[in-house]
Amino acid sequence: MPTLYGVFRSRASRPVWLMYELDMAFDHVPVIQAYRLPQASAPDAQLNTTSAAFLQVNPQGQIPAYVEGDLTLTESLAITNHIARTRGGDLGPRTPAEQALIDQWTLLAVTAVEGPALEIQNIVGAGGDQTPEGQGAIAICAEKLRRPLKRLETHLAAHSHLVGDRFTVADLNLAECLRYAQGHRTLIAEFPAVQAWLAACHARPAFQRMWTARLAEPA
Ligand SMILES: N[C@@H](CCC(=O)N[C@@H](CS)C(=O)NCC(=O)O)C(=O)O
User: Fold this and answer.
1) How many independent structural domains does the chain possess?
2) Residues 167, 161: contact at Cβ < 8 Å?
3) Which residue in 3, 31, 48, 136 has the most C-beta neighbors within 10 A?
């Protein structure tokens, strides 16, 4: 059985959502981010991203990590794409062209969406949206997101999903990266097809199950 390392309050949410979609069994090792612990190096500290035992799995000291037999993967979207390709059925590619499109949307998610979206979440989470400096930083991130969002809006105005007109791992990967920006409601509302697609992704029972498990973890 594969093993997933990483608490649900991390990018481990991505493979967890997918494995819930597939009803796939996995062992879960809840490694936590070291920066969330008061003393990550204490001998009795919870297994964390700087623990020697975890660094054996991912020397980069980041979660998630995924081990399946001899294969170790340490990038969340490589994990989701691998699972989708090998066990995902219709959530994975049916043809090489679909694989290429899944790659395309996944790369757009990590190169054009994740960075500014995460920055928005971090600023809003720290209350920065109440200060002029924070609002200025959010406006810069929003401007960076408008180009990929316009690209996405054009596609979703004509299609129900990103690839093959069915929910695939491409939707999951992109929805997870864009989720960080949803605190910026007026930005998302500029793109109604994207807004409706994101809401539909989040209404899926497997996403809801992942989200409930995530909220059950200590903040
Ligand atoms: N590109 C990596 C990023 C992994 C990453 O940054 N993980 C965070 C948690 S979401 C982490 O482990 N942070 C702890 C640290 O960097 O020390 C992926 O998508 O898996």
Assistant:
1) 2
2) yes
3) 31
Over residues 36-71, the pLDDT tens digits come to 999 999 999 999 999 999 999 999 999 999 999 999
Q: Are residues 50 and 100 in the same domain?
A: no
Q: What local confidence, expressed as pLDDT, does residue 9 receive?
A: 98
What is the Å distance from ligand 1's center to 147 Cα?
25
Final residue belonging to a domain, choices 41, 63, 87: 87
What's the pLDDT tens digit per position in 140-180? 999 999 999 999 999 999 999 999 999 999 999 999 999 99
Residue pLDDT, tens place only, 22-33: 999 999 999 999
201 is written with which tokens?
Answer: 């992704």
Ligand 1 atom index nearest CA of 63: 12
If asked whether residues 138 and 200 sit together in one domain, one would say yes
Q: Do 64 and 126 belong to one domain?
A: no
Can you tell me the distance from the alpha carbon of 8 to that of 88, in angstroms, rounded to the nearest whole number?
21
With a 6 Å cutoff on the Cβ, whether 58 touches ligand 1 is no
How many Å apart are CA 179 and CA 77, to the nearest integer? 15
Do 192 and 99 lie in a common domain?
yes
Alpha carbons 1 and 69: distance in angstroms, whole number: 8
- Do residue 80 and residue 100 come from a single domain? no
**Host domain of residue 56:** 3-87
Question: Does residue 10 have its Cβ closer than 6 Å to ligand 1?
Answer: yes
